[in-house]
Amino acid sequence: METTAIEKLAPFRVGEWLPSDQTILQNWLRDLIAEVEKDKRPLLPVIEEFKEFIESDAEVFMWFNLMFEEVPKKFKKNPAGAPQVRNYHLMLRLMNRIMTKAPEFNETGLVGFPINAILDWSMGTTAGYAAFLNEKVNWQLKRILSEWAIFLSSKDSTYVLNKDPKTGWFGADAKKAMPDFDQEFICDPAKQHHGFKSWDDFFTREFREGQRPLADPDNDAVITNACESAPYRIAKNVKQHDQFWIKAQPYSLEHMMANDPLLDSFVGGTVYQAFLSALSYHRWHSPVSGKIVKAYVQDGTYYAEALSEGYDPAGPNDSQGYITELATRALIFIEADNPAIGLMCIMPVGMAEVSSCQITVYEGQHVKKGEQLGMFHFGGSTHCLFFGPQVKLEFDMHGQTPGLDSSNIPLKSKIATVIN
Fold first, then answer.
1. Cβ atoms 222, 419 nearer than 8 A
2. Which of 93, 213, 284, 394 sits most deeply, having the most CB atoms within 10 A of its CB?
3. Is residue 329 classed as helix, strand or coil in its secondary structure?
4. Which residue, among 409, 202, 378, 401, has the nearest Cα to 285 in the 3D structure?
């Protein structure tokens, strides 16, 4: 078989998974495909609208046909011989089916992102690369994800919390993955669904008082972890412009900050990035004390991933640097009380199904270190902290080297100290 250009550019990387993880993902998709093959219900209005958009826009129609044709033949069926998603018609029917489903627990975390699993290999093709960067495509995806969010905020979505020992979020498998859940989070185990009123209510759960104590509350030279997150990268002397799509995925400030006039303060400075998992706490807290100078959400992509990362089975997971320039994200600029810090910025970035970055503070508000700034609604996510070139930092990664194999540093723990 002839090797395609994209296979030469970025080889298949499924070997980095545990075999059981890949089997779970394949079985989940196989079962969902079997469900929709028997499901004769019409498409929901928002999915029908997406179908009409694909078929009426010549360029998009071409992309959504080519992205499935470009998937190498060896990936069109899984190792057990079961079919993968093979055209946009099946893609739409699978999306239609999950619009009234809440994400189930599984040990990989991946099926927590069902659309991500549906688009699995097609995202890594050249046509998929083009399609998922398109503004009109992302506008349609935002409508779908927003519609799904309404279901996930309803009482009907709670069924998955106690549904099954293996797939329920309070089932036996989930309890092994989150053994201290009842002690860590505000909930009532005596109530149905632990007192959570919806899937979204469960997802945006809060820590109990005292679970994440603030490091050095009276020392404004200590910067604390803004999210319950694992360190991904520390970059210094960051450029205003850079080629963020290449293998190294360098940061490009002008694109990350969407040409905001305040970006000049950060050219040549430092960026710290860390990522959250599906099991993580998904609210953001201020890493410093100071005044909110500006806060807004920048719309962007949902399923774009770097071609240089190839067929990433976890969707944008390996493209975390790349998506900071493109994905839907919040920008919160804070003038720190500590003049040695000055203006800094926190940027929560949505990945895959994360369609909502909700800011809960307002411009002009003074926040104390550790106070809440906002939250993600659903999915896995990443975030960046920006500091100007005048800020000298000594990072504390809690004995880890930043990267995709790192582990969570607790929320509000020290991650850096300003050196005067």
1. no
2. 284
3. strand
4. 409
DSSP bridge partners of 69: none
Query: What Å distances lie between residue 275 and 148, 211, 281, 321, CA to CA?
Result: 24, 20, 11, 11
Helix H segments across 39-134? Answer: 45-56, 58-69, 88-98, 114-118, 126-131
Return all residues near 300 (Cβ < 8 A) that are at least 6 apart.
Answer: 138, 326, 327, 328, 329, 350
Q: List CB contacts of 247: < 8 A, sequence separation 6 or more.
A: 306, 308, 309
Q: How far apart are alpha carbons 229 and 98 in whole angstroms?
A: 28
Which residue is associated with the tokens 């309070």?
170
Residue 412, Cβ neighbours under 10 Å: how many? 23
For residue 278, give both structure tokens.
């599906």
pTM: 0.87
Q: What is the bridge-based pairing of β-strands 343-350 and 290-298?
A: unpaired
Which residue stretches of 178-266 are H helix?
181-184, 199-203, 253-256
Averaged pLDDT for residues 199-222: 95
pLDDT per residue over 325-363, tens digit each? 888 899 999 999 999 999 999 999 987 665 578 999 999
For residues 404 and 313, give the distance between their C-alpha atoms in angstroms, rounded to a whole number: 14
CA distances from 27 to 78, 79, 84, 251, 413 (A): 9, 11, 11, 37, 39
CA distance 359 to 255: 21
What domains can you pick out in the chain, each with its CATH number? 5-152 (no CATH), 222-418 (2.70.70.10)
Q: Which residue matches tokens 């498998």?
A: 173
DSSP notation for 196-216: --SHHHHHT--BPTTSSPPSS
Contact 328, 352 (CB under 8 A): no
Q: In whole angstroms, give the CA distance from residue 207 to residue 212.
A: 7
**Residue 383 three-state SS:** strand
Report the sign of the C-alpha dihedral through residues 417, 256, 301, 346, in that order.
Answer: positive
| Cα 167 to Cα 165: distance, rounded to the nearest angstrom | 6
pLDDT in tens, 272-296: 999 887 778 999 999 999 999 999 9
Instruction: Give the start-end residues of each E strand in 322-362.
Output: 329-336, 343-350, 356-359
pLDDT value at position 263?
95
- Of 165, 159, 174, 164, the residue nearest 278 (C-alpha): 174
